[in-house]
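Work Package 3 (structural annotation) set out to generate three-dimensional models for the target panel prioritized at the project kickoff. During this period the team completed the workflow that converts sequence records into discrete structure tokens, so that structures can be stored uniformly alongside our sequence database. As a representative example, we reproduce one entry of 331 residues exactly as it appears in the project archive.
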Amino acid sequence: MPSINRRALLAGAAATTVLATAATKAQSDVVTAKPDLTGKSILITGCSSGFGRLMAEKFAREGAKVFATMRNLPRTEATELEALAASEDLDLHVIEIDVTDDAQVADGVAKTEEITGGAIDVLVNNAGVSFGGPIEIQDMEATQLIFDVNVFGPHRMARAVLPKMRAAKSGQIFNVTSQLGRVIVPAFGQYSPTKFALEAMSEQLAYELVPHNIEVTAIEPGGYPTNIWANSNKLTLALLERADQKHTAGYGMLIEQLRARTGGGGSTDPMDVPNAIGEIIAMPAGTRPVRRAVHPGMKPQLPINETSAKAQVDWLGASPYGPWIKAVHNV
């Protein structure tokens, strides 16, 4: 494997010393750069509401050329976002992409590259869905949908943008995972399995893209009050309606709780996620974290992240993959 370490590109011993010190701190302390997104082209999936909508507005106001994508156009949310862009003179384009549709992914990415005149700078894989309930009651319709959106969708998007990113020798990919991609709460259906898969895919991509100067970060939010809860409730109730009694019989109390659930996420500020992504975009190339836990409360995944990084370096650090592993983990 080629001995390529992005950190070696940093200028000056002083900068290297600062970064080495920062790498030993908690993740919440590492990202300190003030966002400057002027001239950046950013493609975001799932912009009809929640984190995606907030990101689209924030990044465009900070000078980025934003491609806000959503499915099922035309729709009210797209019209509202376009009106906002016009009223504030924002460089924001609404594009139809259903991340489960190969053709729409290819066409949507091609359209963004045509507008930018080449590779986009940043891809944010934000679109996601959730079902509640025990694993046993998750039928194949629910299971195929959640994996198609939460895992295969980011895979489709990454494959679509990477050829031009590689040609440009630069780029960033953010995958919005979850703290439930590293720890598990019972009765969240296949949500954790999909987010565990996306975490693994993010880290593997991060290693493989070191030679191309493309960085990958998994954003791991805790609970936030976005529309994913209401959407999850609708999907879960539909699942329960079609569920076979032989599967639901053992989970009476859990199913009662699911039927009564009306929301979630607490009183946290969803802007934490766009703010974290914006700060990481603005960091110097070669210094960005492979994972970032985002939540004002508990971050139970942090010791897992630390242990996982150490295990990867200890296992493969001296192998031909070593430069890639060390570059990603800041060692």
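DSSP finds 13 helices and seven strands in the chain.
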